[in-house]
Amino acid sequence: MTDRKFAIVTGASTGIGFELAKLCAQNGFDLLIAADEPEIEEAALALREYGTTVEALEVDLADTDGVDELYAAANGRAIDALLANAGRGLGKGFLDQDFDEVMQVIDTNITGTIYLLQLVGREMRARGAGKILITGSIAGFMPGTYQAVYNGSKAFLDSFSWALRAELKDSGVTVTCLEPGPTETEFFARADMLDTKVGRADNKADPADVAKTGFDAMMNGDGEIVAGWKNKLQAAMAHILPASVTAEMHRDMAEPGGGIKK
């Protein structure tokens, strides 16, 4: 039996998730990484360069059967850290979205995430030790005009993380919510948002910087961390301004065609 720490990282094929997995590898964790695309195998190859054991699993975490498969892949090994980063976006107006795609966002961001959190969280609580990092978003602080389902799902996670943290008080298990803003990842292409102002912006955050902020907060046992001073300012404004105002601010960022110069 190994005495090395063990972490599960979801959504780890690219972007913030890959960078979180890299930080785990650099800090002495063996890894089980998962994503719903074959690039997860390439990620595993890169992470093994850090001298850690990495198992990769291509699995649909929007499906509870997929979550069961991921949890079973841990083979009963004690999970020291769970970095629940898997997520999916969806742009354009809600009434114009395909409902199957809507449900894919909800099932990935909420259903699969909290099911995995319950499975792993019960084990951690029984052991009296463990660290959980949930990737939320500052999007959850404001109504998501032209991104309504995504923002709503992140609002759920932002709230859920604080509730779970309170329930686990004094248990030895900590829950941290990472709140990124727009980050230079595949997110906007996958969400069909490259024709928006936020999708085309060239000042998005570096996913490595965002991941480092979240990883450090998780290791410190912090409750929440907003990544980047601009996002801290935006989050503060979202808490002060009326929802009607922040909904219009979000329209400006996410309206289709808003990022194309005429």
TrEMBL record:
UniProt entry tagged with the keyword Oxidoreductase: yes
SMART domains per UniProt: PKS_KR
Which InterPro entries does this chain map to?
KR_dom, NAD(P)-bd_dom_sf, Sc_DH/Rdtase_CS, SDR_fam
Q: What is this protein called?
A: Oxidoreductase
Organism for this UniProt entry: Roseiterribacter gracilis
SUPFAM superfamilies found in the cross-reference section: NAD(P)-binding Rossmann-fold domains
Please state which protein family the record places this protein in: Belongs to the short-chain dehydrogenases/reductases (SDR) family.
Keyword list (alphabetical) reads: Oxidoreductase
> Taxonomic classification, please?
Bacteria, Pseudomonadati, Pseudomonadota, Alphaproteobacteria, Rhodospirillales
